[in-house]
Structures are given as C-alpha cells and as structure tokens.
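Is it possible to get an amino acid sequence alongside its tokenized fold?
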Amino acid sequence: KIMIRMITTRLASSSLSIVILVTLVFVMAHLTPGGPAYSILGMKATASSVAQLNARLGLDAPLWKQYAIWWWHLLHGQLGYSYLLNRPVGQLLWQYERNTLVFYISAIVISTALSIGLGLLQGVYYGRWPAKLISALQLGFYALPPFFVAAMLVLWFAVQLPLFPASGITDLRAAHPSIGAYIAHLALPVTTITLLTVASLSRYFGEAVREELGKDYVRTAMAKGVSFPSILFRHVLRNALRPLVTMIGLSFPYIFTGGVIVESVFNYPGLGWLMWRSALSQDYPVLIAIVLIIGLLTVIGNLLADLVNGLLDPRASYE
C-alpha cells in the first residue's frame, strides 16, 4: 500500500509538473518579439506572410484556443516546422535524439558504476590517503569546465596520441561504418561527461557511505561477527544508494547542458549540437521543442529517481 500510494503521488506530481512546463513553454513562445510567427519566419518576414502563417497555425484564434491547439499538437507529436531546415521538428529531433540517447545513457551507466566504486573506497578509507587522493581528484575535475576537459582530451588522445577520432560520429569515408568505429567516435565525448559527472556523484556517494558506516546497525552487526564485506555490500551499499539515485535524477539537466558544450566541441550530431546550431541561426521552433524535451527529461529523471528510491527503501515516508 505504501508503494502504491507513493507511485500514485509521484505520478500525479510529475503530471502537474509537465502541465506547468508545457504552459510555460507556450507562454515563452508567445512572449518572443512579434509572436510565434515572427519567431518561425524571422523578424524580416512580411506582414502578409505572417498573417498567412498565423491563419495556417491557428495563431489568429483566441489565446485559450491556441493553448488547446498547442496541447493537441503535442499529444499528436506535432512539434512544429523548421522553415530554416525545411523539415518537421519532430523528425529533426528524432534524427539527433538517437545519438544523444546513446551518448548520455553510456555516460550515465559508466559514471554510476565508477561513482559507486570510488564512493565505497572513499567511505571505507575515510581519513586515510586513498580517500584523500580520491577527494583531491574529485575537487580537481569538479572545478574544470566541460570545454576545457574536452579540449584536453582531443589534444592528448586525438592529436598527440591519435588513438580516437576528434569529431563526428562515423568515418565519412567508410561506406558501412562498423560498431567499433562508432564506439571509437563515442569514446572521447563519453569520457568527458563521465569525468565531470563522477567528480560530483562519487563525492556525495562517498559521504553517504561514510555516514552509514558510522551508524549503530553496522557496529551491532560487526559485534555479532558478521563479516565487513557482507555488511558493506548487503546493507551499507543499499542504504547509501538512495542519495546517489537522487543525485542522478537531479543531474539530468546538468548532464544535458554540459553535453551541449561537449557535443559542440566534438561536432557530435546530438540534441546539444542541434540546440547550439539552432540558437546561432535563431531557429525558434527547434529551440522551443528542445527546451520542452529538456524539461520533460528532468521531470522523468526525478520521477524515476523517486521510484527507485522507493524500491530501495519502502519504509521511506511518502505521505
């Protein structure tokens, strides 16, 4: 019953967040100079072309009706049309989103595994040189901006030691790029995001492990003769994972914004790269759709984090 109540509460809360998000994006689109039509056609558009587009998109209707049309289009996957690229925004986003999903999922999986390993070491060896070394590395990488880490990796591993490609997603000279070539192009961008993400996540997880190791149940279990590895991996790890899962959910926007810079540096054709190009060309329909997707990913990330935390500790209070 607690789990069902928690899931229902979180779904309702997330649904409300999505409604607020969609409404804010709708308002933002109408607050652009000249309105949505000028945003789509450009500020040099003629009055007649703006009037024709307003009539075609229903932008000459009352605001409440435009809002209803906005929801109708979203529910049917209609995210607008990019007149600069002459393609529906939905098709355009899907072309780049596939690359972004592979990029981010790889980075998050690797970052989570490394954060757990480093956090356990930091918690177990708290106050000793392994923990101090890990802490120094965390602070060092946490302070570095994404573009600097990306540039250094390109300099070291693509220029001085040409082990990996410096940009792109496949070798344009190959008629049928292999999976190995695809992974090689992913290596440096994924490493950049992983280094920056681990620096943040492992620090919080290491602190959570240290706090758990100082609790009474650990001392009681050790007094009863339970082995330390059993305590660490069966009890401490499970309890310490809750704040890590929360941090992963909250880091979705940070990972994406860092990914915008990283994708631009590596010329990696993902949503971040498309967002950067759309901002330079003032392609507002694409920009608005990407902002909407970022918000949705943030809501979904927080929802998944809450659900996983509920599974890890069903006794948590969700009233």
Notes: The chain has a mean pLDDT of 81. The radius of gyration is 24 Å.
